[in-house]
Every structure is written in C-alpha cells, then in structure tokens.
Amino acid sequence: MRFILGLALALCLGLAATPSRAADPLLSESIALTGPVLWLVSGAPGMVLVVVRGHDNVIEGYGETEKGNKIEPTAKSLFRLGSISKVFTTEVLASLVVDDTVRLTDPLQQYAGGVMVPRVSGAPPITLLDLATHTAGLPREMGFAPEKPPFTWPTRADRWAWLSHEKLGWAPGSVAAYSNIGFDLLADALATADGQPYAALLSARVTGPLGMKDTTLDPTLDECQLLMIGSGIGGPGPCVDTEATGGSGGLYSTGADMAIWLRHNLDTTNPVLLLSHAIYRPRQSLSAAIGFDEAGPMAGLGLGWVMLAAHGHQPMLLEKSGGGGGFMTYIAFAPGRDVGAFVVMNRVDFGAFEALTKGINDLIANLVTR
After folding, report:
1. Residue 364 and residue 366: Cα distance in Å, rounded?
2. Closest CA to 32 of 56, 58, 53, 7
3. Coil, strand or helix: which one is 229?
4. Nearest to 326 by CA among 341, 345, 301, 340
C-alpha cells in the first residue's frame, strides 16, 4: 500500500498541475494530493477541479485540454456542463416564482401555445414543479437522436410536436424518472412566461447578474478556441450553438465561472436559492426513483438538485452530475457549511466517474465537520 501511494504521489508530482495557493491554506492542502489522484484515476486527458470554502477558492487544471497537445487546462478553459445545465434552468424558474411571474403549481398546459399536453385519466396535470423534479411522467429522451452535433437536438419545434402525441407512463408526481426532455420543455415554458428566448432569459436572470461571462449556449469563435476536446463514449462534438437543449444540457462554462456558481449557491439567505434548494420530492414519498444514484443514494429531489443524506462523516449534500459531448461533470456542496466542489473531465467513462464523485464527496467531508 505504501508503494502504491508513493507511486501515485510521484506520478502526481511529475504530471499534475502545480497547486495554486488559496488565501485559505486548508483549500490548497485539501487538493494537494486529492486533485492529482482524482485525475489519474479518471483516465481522462485532462481535468479541472474547483473547490470553494467561504470566500476563498482554488481552481486547478490537470493533464491536457486534448490528448497529446501538452496544453494544461486553466480557469478559463471552456468545457461542456451537460446536465448541470438543469440547475441553471431551475434557478431561472425560482427567480420567476419569487417575482410572481409563474408558480410552481402552474400546469405546463398554461404555456403550451395551443399544443395539448398529455394527461393520465383521473390524475392532476403536469406542473412546472413536476418538470423540475423529474416527476412529470415523461421519458428520459424523445428517442434515438439523429446524426446531429451533441446538444443541438431536439429543437423546440421537434419536442412540442412529439409531446402532442406522447402518452404519459404514470401519473405526474408519483414516480421520479430522470428526464432530459422534461427540462427542455420547462425552459420553453419559462421563456413563454417571460416573453423572451430562453438564452436571453438565462442571461438576464442568472449568468449576467452573477458575472458568469463565459457560461453560454452560443460561444464565440475566441471562446471556442479555448474549448477542451472531449473523448470516450460518443466522442467529441464541434463547438456550436446549443440553445436547442439549453434547459437540459447545452451550457458551456469555465472553472472561473463555476467558482462563482458554487459561491453563489452557498448563500443561505437568498430567497431564490431557498426555493431551488428545498426538497420537494423525498424519495420515500415516491413509488419509484430511476436514474439518480450515480453519486450516492438519492434521498430527495429539489429543483434540479439531488439531495444525498448525511451518513458517517459526510454531511448532507446537494449535487448534480452531467455528461455528454466527451465530458463528464459533477458539482456538490454542503448547505449551510460554506464548502463545495466542482469537477470536469474530458472523457466519458461511467466507471471512472463513480470514483470521481466519491472523491469529491469525500473531499467536501474532509473540509466539513458534522
């Protein structure tokens, strides 16, 4: 065991990024070995790790932005967030609830523009809350995607045409089953309610006020030059406009912006966050829950966020994972404890991802005492 740890340390010192120094020395110490080991275990060409504690943060890049190019990722390297995009969508939702533009209990039909939203006989209609908690009775996807760049299909027209002929699998609110299509319909509904395209709404309500300048659905040519190149299952995709799936997975971002996002979500006084972080669907209240346990057993669902119950030395966490287009991502934080972390690797590998999520959860637990 000492030999293995020693070899890992030697590899880390030889291959990984030089640790930056945070104002809080605990942050630098916490990732000095953990970060490089997580990257080595991931098998990815590169990785970006962000850890936030209070007002301090560390952002580290490991490996290469593309296999073999010898360019180390930085805080400004662009990557795909995948399904972490969903918690941006639900923040837009919560902000519209706070100013009374929409209500969580509003039926999707109210924003359907004449399309008939399917219902289960005798059951309540699909609400915005159902969409935001994966409990609308909708499938994960519309079906097999055509040969399109990642996150560019289905379009808004595609999904509403599909919805008009869909039959729900179960009554809304009774079962949680992970649904990408549900979050794109949610984004469409929010755009209709506010009267502007979803990309503009997201910028006006979330990324703009927070100063997240590089978190976008339509990167510029200069930003695309900074995009890490994905690998693994499905391979990489071109740097293109992904507004079509902005609600479910289309966002691009950087380590610098994700540090802002983490610190924002650690605010325990923001009324928008109080809404989005609340647990609306405890697991024990559901008949079944499908597709939420990749980072640990899901105990409940907030607006987009997945709650992991406290156990052992790990505090209660809110988390969200993502993947696609050659990337896998994970974000987690301990509400009320001022600690959170984000990681992205430019390789799709579900086996390696399990170790990565555990490593992030353990890292947070090491910085928080229950």
Report:
1. 5
2. 58
3. coil
4. 345
Residue 156 within any structural domain of the chain: yes
Tokens 């994905």 locate to 230
- Does 15 reside within a domain? no
Measure the CA–CA gap between 61 and 255, rounded to whole angstroms.
9
- pLDDT the model gives residue 299: 98
Task: Kindly state the tokens that stand for 133.
Answer: 């908690």
Which token pair is 121? 């006989």
Q: Is 255 domain-assigned? A: yes
Number of domains the chain contains:
1
pTM of the model: 0.94
Closest CA to 135 of 95, 85, 170: 170
The neighbouring-strand residues paired with 307 are 300, 318
Contact assessment for residue 182 and residue 131, using Cβ atoms and an 8 Å cutoff: yes
Q: What is the CATH number of the domain that holds 289?
A: 3.40.710.10
| Region class of 155: left (phi > 0), else alpha (psi between -120 and 50), else beta | beta
pLDDT at residue number 143:
85
Structural domain of 234: 78-367
- The tokens describing 230, both together, are 């994905």
Express each pLDDT in 278-327 by its tens digit: 999 999 999 999 999 999 999 999 999 999 999 999 999 999 999 999 99
Single out the residue of 44, 79, 70, 82 nearest to residue 232, CA to CA: 44
